[in-house]
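Subgroup meeting minutes
Present: P.N., E.W., G.H.
Scribe: E.W.

1. P.N. recapped why we're keeping a running log of single-chain structure predictions: easier to compare across weeks, and new members can see raw inputs and outputs side by side.
2. G.H. added today's entry (175 aa).
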Amino acid sequence: MNRMLTCVCCLALAVPAFGQKKAEKAGGDQQFIEMAAQTDMVEANLGQLAASNGDAQPVKDFAQTLVTDHTSDYNQLKTIAQQANLNVPDAIDATHNKAMIDPMQKLKGAAFDKKYIQDMIAGHEKAIAMYKKESTMAQSDAIKSYATAALPVLQKHLDAAKELAKAKPSAKPAQ
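Output recorded in log:
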């Protein structure tokens, strides 16, 4: 009888642990959705800012590509998240505003371009790492597929940003 009671107690203690693993994974999916949404919104916002604050046309063209791609990605993310019963933020949070948007609003011209490209390289490297992880670790198969499908576009953005970083600014005629 004692052995049976011990087994029942062990089983009762183990059941919440199984549920906790599933909750952690679902929490991971929710965290990913939040991170991906913030990334998409920040990238689109900074891309729009580049139109007015940027200097070099190649940087502005790159920024417009990011606006288009990240707006499309955000819409796909919303659909996938709704299917998985997860919440998608619809505004840039205070942390991302303070860390990424506010400093860029103060820059103009070549200084904006340089910082923008540096931020795009760092941001896309971080995003690629998170998307790779989610493409294998997500609880939801739809989120795994979404993350896998988004990786080539993120890599294309990273490669383009690195090329812009290597490019020398064109000489401007004296005025």
